[in-house]
Write a structure and sequence with these properties.
about 80% helix; flat; mainly alpha
C-alpha cells in the first residue's frame, strides 16, 4: 500500500502559525512576569533598605535629642548613684557569666589543654605578634648567656689571681703571668662586646617590629591575645574568681588614653612585654598539664592489678604519688578520681598487709570448778 500524505491546506497552516504564535506569546509573558517579579523584589529590597536607614537615622536623631535633653550631670545625686550602681552590677553580672562559661565549658583536662594550646597557636599564627615575641624570647635567652659568661669569666680571673697569690705560677715569670692575665681579660672583653652588640641589634629589631603593630587590626589582636592568655592562666591556676574581664577593661582604657596623648607606642611595647611573660607562664602550665597526663597513664599502669601488689610495690606506689604531689600540685584536682582511687588502694593494701602480719592470740579457755 502506498503511504497517503495528509495534504495541508492554507487554513491548517494558518492554524499552526497561530498556535505557535500563542505559545511564543505565552512564554514571553511568563518571562516578563518573572522579570517583573525580580524587579519587584529588588524594588522592595531597596524600599526596605531605605526604611531601615530612615529608622536608624530616626533612632540616632532621637538618641541625640535625649542626650541633649537628659544629661547625667543634670540628674539628682541619687539617680546618678543608682545608674552607676546598675552599670557596675551589669559589668559584674557579665563577668560572672563569662567566668561560669569558661569553667563549665572546659571541665576535663583534655578540654582545658586543647583550649589553651589553641590560644597559643593563634598568637604564633599572627606574623606581626610572633615577630615581636620571638625577638623578646631571643633577647631573654641572650641575656642569660651574657650573665652566665660574666660569671664564668669572673671565676676564671679569680682562679688566676689565686694562683698568683699562692705562688702557683707553673714556672711563669711575673711578666709572663701578667701578660697571660691581660690576654684573658682582652678575650673576655671581646666576647662580651660581641654579645652586647648582638643584644643592641635585637633591640633595634624589636623597635622596628613595633611599627608593624601600630594599626587597629594589630592593636585588637594584642588585646584579644592578652585576654585569652588571662583566661588560660585562670584555668591553669584554678582561680576562684574572674579577673580577666577587669584586666581587659583596664587595658582598653589604658590604650584609649595613650591614643589621645600620643603614647600608643609606649603602651604597645608594655602590652607586648606583658604578653611575652604571660605566654611563658601559659607554656609552663601546658608543660605541667602534659606531665600530669603522663603521670595519669603511669598510675593507670601501676594500679592495673591491685590485688597482686605486695607491700614493696605498694610502698613504691606511695613514693610515686608523693613525687606527683611535689611535681604537679594540681594533679589531685585535675584527676581527682584517679588520685583518690590510688590513695584508697594504698590504704587498703597496707591495711591488708598489717592484718596478715597480725599475730592472732588463742582464745582463753574458761576453767570449770
Amino acid at each position: 500500500m502506498e503511504d497517503i500524505k495528509e495534504e495541508q491546506t492554507p487554513k491548517s497552516i494558518l492554524s499552526q502559525w497561530q498556535e505557535q504564535f500563542d505559545i511564543e506569546k505565552e512564554k514571553k509573558e511568563e518571562l516578563n512576569l518573572e522579570k517583573s517579579s525580580e524587579e519587584l523584589e529588588k524594588e522592595l529590597e531597596e524600599i526596605n533598605k531605605l526604611n531601615f536607614q530612615e529608622d536608624l537615622e530616626n533612632q540616632e536623631e532621637l538618641k541625640a535629642k535625649l542626650e541633649k535633653e537628659l544629661k547625667l550631670e543634670d540628674l539628682p545625686q541619687e539617680a546618678k548613684q543608682t545608674l552607676e550602681i546598675l552599670e557596675e552590677k551589669e559589668k559584674l553580672d557579665n563577668d560572672m557569666r563569662n567566668f561560669i562559661e569558661l569553667t563549665t565549658e572546659y571541665e576535663t583536662p583534655n578540654e582545658k589543654r586543647a583550649f589553651i594550646e589553641n590560644n597559643l597557636k593563634e598568637i604564633k599564627d599572627n606574623p606581626e605578634l610572633n615577630e615581636s615575641l620571638s625577638i623578646l624570647k631571643e633577647q631573654e635567652q641572650l641575656q642569660k648567656e651574657i650573665d652566665n659568661t660574666k660569671e664564668e669569666m669572673a671565676k676564671e680571673e679569680k682562679e688566676l689571681k689565686d694562683q698568683l697569690e699562692n705562688n702557683e705560677k707553673k714556672g711563669l715569670s711575673q711578666e709572663e703571668y701578667d701578660e697571660k692575665f691581660a690576654e684573658m681579660e682582652k678575650e673576655h672583653a671581646q666576647k662580651l662586646k660581641e654579645m652586647e652588640e648582638k643584644m643592641e641589634k635585637l633591640e633595634q629589631n624589636f623597635e622596628n617590629s613595633i611599627e608593624n603593630l601600630l594599626n587597629s587590626k594589630s592593636l585588637s589582636a594584642i588585646l584579644k591575645s592578652l585576654y585569652e592568655m588571662d583566661k588560660s592562666l585562670n584555668l591553669i591556676l584554678k582561680e576562684k574568681e574572674n579577673n580577666f574581664d577587669e584586666l581587659n577593661r583596664q587595658r582598653e582604657e589604658k590604650l584609649n588614653l595613650a591614643m589621645q596623648t600620643e603614647k600608643t607606642r609606649e603602651v604597645v611595647i608594655d602590652f607586648i612585654k606583658e604578653l611575652h611573660q604571660k605566654t611563658k607562664s601559659v607554656e609552663n602550665g601546658i608543660n605541667d598539664m602534659n606531665k600530669e597526663r603522663n603521670f595519669y597513664y603511669e598510675l593507670d599502669k601501676l594500679t592495673k592489678n591491685p590485688e597482686k601488689m605486695d607491700l614493696k610495690e605498694t610502698q613504691k606506689l606511695q613514693e610515686y604519688i608523693n613525687y606527683i604531689d611535689k611535681e604537679t600540685p594540681n594533679f589531685k584536682e585535675n584527676y581527682p578520681k584517679k588520685y583518690k582511687q590510688t590513695k584508697k588502694l594504698i590504704e587498703n593494701n597496707i591495711k591488708k598487709t598489717m592484718d596478715k602480719a597480725k599475730v592472732k592470740t588463742p582464745e582463753s579457755k574458761g576453767i570449770s570448778l
